[in-house]
Amino acid sequence: MIKKILLVIGLIFAAVRLNAQTELIGAGASFPYPLYSKMFDEYYKIYSVKVNYQSIGSGGGIRQLKAKTVDFGASDAILNDEQLKEFDGEILHIPICLGVVVITYNLDVTHRINFTPDLIADIFLGKITKWNDERIKKVNPKLSLPDLPITVVRRADGSGTTFVFTDYLCKVSSEWKEKVGTGTSVNWPVGIGGKGNEGVAGLVKQTKGAIGYVELTYALQNKLPYGVIRNKSGYFINPTVESVSEAGNVKLPDDMRISITDTESKTGYPISAFTYILVYSDLSKANDKMNYEKAKTLANLLWWMTHEGQKYTKPLDYAPLSKEAQKSAEKLLKKLNFDGKILLK
What we know:
Layout: H1 2-21, E1 23-28, H2 33-47, E2 50-55, H3 58-67, E3 72-75, H4 81-84, E4 91-105, E5 114-115, H5 117-124, H6 134-138, E6 151-155, H7 160-172, H8 174-179, E7 192-194, H9 196-206, E8 210-215, H10 216-221, E9 228-230, E10 236-237, H11 241-247, E11 272-280, H12 292-306, H13 323-333, E12 337-338, E13 341-342
Parallel strand pairs: 1-2, 1-3, 5-9, 6-7, 6-8
Antiparallel strand pairs: 3-11, 4-8, 4-11, 9-10, 12-13
Helix pairs in contact: 12-13
């Protein structure tokens, strides 16, 4: 009888250990959250690996990775050389997909609004304050624009979406670059703040005359209109899977830290970006709960996300990795190890 009880107890502890090994903790970008939710749900159905992912913004994901409270972070913002030095090991940027930041608004108009780079910069600088401003009317001659104040909505938290958006604005506006700059958080000249892409979309939806920037999926989910933006080549481009793919059709660096905003492509959408999973190359440094089996589980998940999981990108309005980007991801993933022991052959 005692042997049977001990056997049962042993099986329970084994099950607990297995569960601990197959539950992964991640946090960060809200930009890819709809896609990650789908991927993690499908992965669980196939492999019974649970992924607990918190959509807290890229800034939060980077902080938690540094604090070693998660197994992986997620960010649309690229870590610069100085930021990388703050970690006690090499951090890899694993590209998962490409997405677009759209200019969304709450306005009753018959067609999508055309935006030029200078219009976007001056609206978010607070220099253009009315929807019927002559400069907006000039590029939208067929629209009847109301005499309505523009309410700028921006992120209140550390955000990769903000990084992508401000990176774009720095490239198209010298005044923005000088006065505001680029970052996951900046000192906004005007506007009200929302937490996450969800919060910005919610505030735009609630506020007549509002304008904000969100990942495309959040505009679609909230049935919000979004603008058409003139790119570097002078063409007004709709944000689509095809136009973001064109923006990313460039030579890629080995470490995949690249900005593709203000693309040179004639058919590329100008506010496009890769989004990344951030991990230690030596996963033994991730946190004190990481072990070899859990590290192997994480490596397998990331391989699946960059390969089989890519089929979930287009249905959710993200662009899949190109063959070149996928090869770059493979090279990075093959660097993953646990205290020197390679995880993927």
